[in-house]
Amino acid sequence: MRLSQFHLATVKEVPADAEVASHRLMLRAGMLRKLAAGIYTWTPLGLRVLRKVETVVREEMNRAGAIEMLMPSIQPRELWEETQRWEKFGGQLLKLKDRREQEYCYGPTHEEVITDFARQELKSYKQLPINFYQIQTKFRDEIRPRFGVMRAREFMMKDAYSFHLTPESLAATYGVMYGAYGRIFDRLGLRFRAVQADTGAIGGNASHEFQVLAESGEDAIAWSDGSDYAANVELAEALAPRVERPEPAAELQRVDTPARKTMDEVSTFLSVSPDQCVKTILVRGEQGLVALCVRGDHEINEVKAAKLEELPGASVLADEAEILKATGTRPGFIGPVGLPDEIPVIVDRSAAALADFVCGGNAVDTHYTGANWNRDARITRIADLRKVVDGDPSPDGEGTLHIARGIEVGHVFQLGGRYAEAMNATVLDENGKARAMLMGCYGIGVSRIVAAAIEQNHDDRGIVWPEPMAPWTVAICVIGSRNGTQAQDAAQALYDELTGHGLEVLLDDRGLRPGPMFADMELIGIPHRIVVSERGLEAGTFEYRHRRDTENRALTRAELMERLLGA
RNA sequence: CGGGGUAUAGCUCAGCCUGGUAGAGCGUUGCGUUUGGGACGCAAAAGUCGGGGGUUCGAAUCCCUCUACCCCGACCA
């Protein structure tokens, strides 16, 4: 590509509210233009990168035996009623009406559409297993879109759906997809981890997330330094402490703690370490209020809490009025001692191992000290309720957990029978009996990968693309082109030769001064840069510099070819 | 959904508190100089100050309202 014939749209300034590196750099490099909140135009430059990612994904999906297709982005309400997700999916579902008042949504995912397709197309177990995929624009009406395409509302996604007669077949395809995902992120040159994950709104059994490691990531992942265990913190199990609960040694005592509501305030005021305190929160589930207790230095894990049998369905934090009515106190002073009998008290494993602890006094401005389970406070049940923290033992018994941040770029699920059953998608088995199919689903955030790659690969001059994602592999910069055609001719010849070898080359023939030209090439992150100048030509060399280098090196044409084309 | 903020030239922003007829940098156009790390000079084009309403002799500026965008929170007591 001759740059004079392209639309390169780099800019010097970027809005003050572009916070993360990838967002700023994508705007500066002119890959993106914002159209509305969470909705972006991909410029010609941005699209080249997006296509690179798509290509790798497509090749690996095909290699793994998945079959590409394309489903509509607009989906009828009726289909979503069949799985009850028209209501359950929540505010992220963008709903639309046509001129006849028929209702639709813009697809945030395609389980319903593919299952509908499958129930019409697949009739026999002999057609199974089969795995369909598409690469397509999706829309989720995020509460707070941010960080550019990292958390956009409209985004590009690859989604695949497999169909099976048996759990063994599903597990086999799941394994194949898991392997394909690893290859995709390896090929793209990303540092990532596959972690055990919660299945969330989509539902199902086994599930892994593929997380690109980055400080700016919105997800927290727990990994063990003694094994290959890794899990989303939502899922990571917090083991019970190895020590037995000590015998009570202190008297239960009510103490005044005026206006000390938070754990920090209480522990400072009473000079007691937070790990000798119990904090209690009240949540309202479908069956009434439930008290959840964790140690003062721990936090409740909402995903784990939602799985408690005492809290079926949706639950929310109790409001002040409810708390006052049930306990006679306000938030900040709730404790397990003397709670009404009808409120179940679910205690985290670590909190349950405490003796002589501090907890809320169930009266405004008071706490208890010297409280003990059983003697002073009921335990309905002990459960794993808290988020794991750095330094916890690994759930597999090997090593210690650490917390890292990641950007979720892929997610694989074994969905099981849920959707096929709800939508009556069956095939006949060997005995001629109709059986609901089992499903797997496998997503990759194609546009998010572009942002994630930049988070991992940039410096103060701009983007440093992993080669497979770069918009071009080689940039040729011409210096002194106004003074004559010698350098221009040499650059053109070099361009022709490299292009002839199948390289994607960008020839900067804009005739700019060197400063702006180099700055642009570095900003947009082209891996290899060659400078063609009169000076070099006289010496019989070209000037070469890799994007990661800080020094130029003078190479002969042969040396240059060897470097770029391999031996 | 709650709270806060912003909206002024193509872009990034100042001006608003204290009302008096519109500014800067970058970019763009023309001419000249310059040509190895975001050059310089001269000249120029470019804004219904987000929309609507009000107060006032006079509104970018004060008030009301609508819209869009951004930030924080919305389960840690």
TrEMBL record:
List the InterPro entries hit by this protein, alphabetically.
aa-tRNA-synt_IIb, aa-tRNA-synth_II, aa-tRNA-synth_II/BPL/LPL, Anticodon-bd, Anticodon-bd_dom_sf, Pro-tRNA-ligase_IIa, Pro-tRNA-synth_IIa_bac-type, Pro-tRNA-Synthase_IIa_type1
The protein's GO terms of the molecular function aspect are: aminoacyl-tRNA deacylase activity; ATP binding; proline-tRNA ligase activity
State its location(s).
Answer: Cytoplasm
Alphabetized SUPFAM superfamilies for the sequence: Class II aaRS ABD-related, Class II aaRS and biotin synthetases, YbaK/ProRS associated domain
Q: Which GO terms describe its biological process?
A: prolyl-tRNA aminoacylation
Keyword set for this entry? Answer: Aminoacyl-tRNA synthetase, ATP-binding, Cytoplasm, Ligase, Nucleotide-binding, Protein biosynthesis
Q: Which PROSITE patterns match?
A: AA_TRNA_LIGASE_II
| A GO cellular component entry from the record | cytosol
What EC number(s) is this enzyme filed under?
6.1.1.15
Its UniProt entry gives the catalysed reaction(s) as:
tRNA(Pro) + L-proline + ATP = L-prolyl-tRNA(Pro) + AMP + diphosphate
Pfam families, per the entry = HGTP_anticodon, tRNA-synt_2b, tRNA_edit
Q: Which part of the chain is the Aminoacyl-transfer RNA synthetases class-II family profile domain? A: 5-466
Please verify whether the record's keywords include Ligase: yes
- Assembly, per entry: Homodimer.
Any idea what job this protein has?
Catalyzes the attachment of proline to tRNA(Pro) in a two-step reaction: proline is first activated by ATP to form Pro-AMP and then transferred to the acceptor end of tRNA(Pro). As ProRS can inadvertently accommodate and process non-cognate amino acids such as alanine and cysteine, to avoid such errors it has two additional distinct editing activities against alanine. One activity is designated as 'pretransfer' editing and involves the tRNA(Pro)-independent hydrolysis of activated Ala-AMP.
Q: Give the record's family classification.
A: Belongs to the class-II aminoacyl-tRNA synthetase family. ProS type 1 subfamily.
Spell out the NCBIfam families in the cross-references.
PRK09194.1 (NF006625), proS_fam_II (TIGR00409)
Cite the domain annotation text. Consists of three domains: the N-terminal catalytic domain, the editing domain and the C-terminal anticodon-binding domain.
- Indicate what this protein is called per its UniProt record: Proline--tRNA ligase
The organism encoding this protein is Oleiagrimonas soli
